[in-house]
Structure formats: structure tokens, C-alpha cells
Amino acid sequence: MTRARLESRRLTGVGVLAAAVLALAVGAGLGRPSVVGVASAPPIDPPPQAGDCLYAGPDGPWNTARFDGSWQDMAYHRWYGPCREPWFGEVVGVRTQADIQADLAESRVGPGYDPCAALTASYLGAQTVQPVDGWVSVTISASTLEPNRRQYSSGPMWQACVLGAPWWTPEGEPYTSDGEVNAGPTTTEPLRGRWVDVSVRNMFGVCEEGSWTERNGVFCGEPHDREFVAHTTWNSATDPVVLERGCRQQMGRVMGRQDPTGGDALAAEVVTYDQLGQLAALTDSTALGETGSAECWVRSADPSRQLTATVIGLGEGPVPLTPR
Q1: What pLDDT digit, counting tens, does each position of 101-122 carry?
Q2: Closest to 267 (Cα-Cα) out of 286, 282, 288
Q3: According to the lineage, what is the superkingdom (predicted)?
Q4: Angle at Cα 216 formed by Cα 212 and Cα 218, nearest 5°?
């Protein structure tokens, strides 16, 4: 066989092999189904339910301000779910669009109105305390969080009442934050139905030690000089005696006992802001302006003794006092 014929046969074989490979490739392509369409949007989360916990990214779940004064809406960085990992708060209830519209129709808005008060008290197992003589009790307030834009566009309006994690641990350790945005505390301590537990109430109380000018906040489960129980404002001339009487009455309601002094073991103290903006204890000779504000505090009637626990929700139990 001549060289020319060998070369012609070799090229023919290469061509046949190439055609076979091409046929296999085409056949495989024809046998594989093609996918046609567009990526679907992630599902829209339903409204939360009472007992769900609030989670968020590093910046926290709250609509908050950065330290430079700019606002950043965190709505897309929060979500709700079972209480497993450390959470920012618990959902005590969800208000419907009808609830929100009723507030507007009856003008239940503005300072002093807490739309979540009844839901929070029911969730904790606490009693709601109504104002008396203008005195509004210290409250364990839940925040109202609304749907994000996708949730809002897909259904009726709602508001989640979220009880944020307390600023103290049950052991009395304060929460601190050193991030660019104050995300707030997280906890793994469930609160539902636990208001009867004084260790839970201690985490929410507002207690202080030292003079009025120092204002040193302390954990209510440790010895302290006083606890904040109510506040009031006035827009017309008032009398110190009237203020003191209202403070004492509200003190009893907050404590949940007939005799708020516990047999003269405790005293109610009213403090107002002076002309320099400093708090000062109210006396019968204190000159009150036609407008002003005051705070109601509970302290030991005996200066040689201190409180050792919160008086909120104390009931008719023993008064928590200890010698200094």
C-alpha cells in the first residue's frame, strides 16, 4: 500500500471517530431536560405568635440610632421563632389591625398610653395597675414592632408586642454593649408566667443607692436605698400633701398590699426637680410651680436599714429589709 493511500485511510478514521464523539455529545444534550424560568422570591414570614422569641443580626432588632445620630431601620434584620438560642425579647401578644384602628378612633395615643400593657401583664402573670390621682405606676413595657415591607404588602397590618430582655441577669450582672449600634441585651431566661418569682421581678425593678445627686443605679436583688414605683406631672397649682397622698396610694397598688408601709417599715418619698434641674425630696414647705413633674420612691423608714429586693408585686409577704 502506498504512502498516499495510508495517509488517506488514517484521516478517514479520525473523521469517523470525531463524528461519533459529536453524535454522543449531541445525544446526551438532547436527552437532558432543560430548565426554563426565573428564581422565585423567598416566602413571606407569617405574623409571630405569643410565646415566640425575637432574633436579629449583629445590629439588633430595634429601630435604633447609630452613635453618629443617623437612623437605621432594622426591620429586615429581625425575625421570630422558637425560644432556643439567646433572644432579644419575647412576643407577649399580637395586636390586629382592628386593635390599632380602635386606638386611633378613641384617641388612645400619646405619652402615658401603653397599647401592650394588658398583654404584657397577662403574659407575665402580673396585675395591671391603673393611675391614681395622676400618679402612673412604673410599668414593664413591651415595644410594638410592625411588619417589614414585604409582610405589610401581603396582608393586614399587625403589631407584635415584644418584651425586651431585662438589663440585669438573674444573678445581678448588668448588660453592657460596646458595638457601633446598641443592639440591646439578649437572654435565655424565659419570662412567661413567672412574675410570681422575685428573681424575675428583681431584673426589671429600678433601684438606687446613695444621695439624690449621685443616682447610682443598682440591681434590686442587692441591698439598696430606694426603688422607683411611680411618676406624675401637673399643669395647674398643686399641693405637696396631695402629691404625697397619691404617691403612697400608688405605692400600695404597685406592691399589691393594703398597708404599703408594711407596719411603718417603709416610707414613700416624693422627689421633684428644682430650678437647677436637680432632684430634691419634697417637703411641706416645697414651693411647687403651676407645672412640674415628680417621682415616687419607696425606701426604708429606718435609715439604718436597706431594701434587699424589689417591692413590686410583693403582696402581703414580709418586707425585704436588712441592717446596713
Answers
A1: 999 888 887 766 889 999 999 9
A2: 282
A3: Bacteria
A4: 130
